[in-house]
């Protein structure tokens, strides 16, 4: 007589383990019940119920240790970000200094070319020094060559 109620309790307890552990809404809004996890195309916000401990999900991607977006960065991560910003700032400062030096050199080169062009246009006698250190005056061909070079440099000047 006691065997039947005891058997009923055992059957009732074991049937609850076979009940649906996952409940989710499909794309049409219909509730789906299953003892298996929902397919991977079901977003997490449409999963109504799931067991607290997942045993095995055949659809699951291998878990990668993803950082929770709500968790603040660690001290090491903040330090690495700070060091990267420092390196970037130093590189930008170096680049700016190089650009300033290049522009200053170009201005000086343009000024020298303008000066040479004015001297050539005035028709003055220009002298140079040869390899032995002797003064020599420029010929007309040398003056014309120097004029062409000065014009090329001035074409690049603004």
From TrEMBL:
Keywords for this protein: Signal
Disordered: annotated segments: 59-126
Pfam families per the UniProt record, alphabetical: DUF4124
The UniProt record lists the keyword ATP-binding: no
Biased composition regions of type Basic and acidic residues, renumbered to the chain: 98-114
Signal sequence coordinates: 1-18
Domain DUF4124, residue spans: 11-55
UniProt key word Cytoplasm: no
Biased composition (Low complexity): 78-97
Domain of life where this protein originates: Bacteria
InterPro entries: DUF4124
Name the UniProt record assigns to this protein: DUF4124 domain-containing protein
Organism: Duganella lactea
């Amino acid at each position: 007589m006691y065997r039947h109620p005891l058997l009923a309790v055992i059957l009732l307890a074991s049937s609850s383990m076979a009940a649906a552990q996952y409940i989710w809404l499909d794309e049409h809004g219909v509730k789906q019940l299953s003892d298996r996890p929902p397919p991977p195309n079901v977003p997490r916000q449409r999963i109504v119920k799931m067991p607290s401990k997942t045993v095995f999900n055949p659809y699951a991607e291998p878990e990668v240790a993803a950082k929770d977006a709500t968790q603040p960065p660690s001290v090491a991560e903040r330090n690495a970000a700070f060091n990267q910003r420092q390196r970037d700032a130093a590189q930008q400062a170096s680049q700016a200094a190089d650009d300033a030096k290049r522009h200053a050199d170009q201005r000086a080169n343009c000024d020298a070319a303008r000066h040479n062009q004015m001297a050539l246009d005035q028709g003055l006698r220009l002298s140079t020094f040869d390899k032995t250190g002797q003064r020599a005056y420029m010929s007309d061909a040398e003056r014309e060559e120097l004029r062409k070079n000065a014009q090329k440099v001035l074409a690049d000047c603004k």
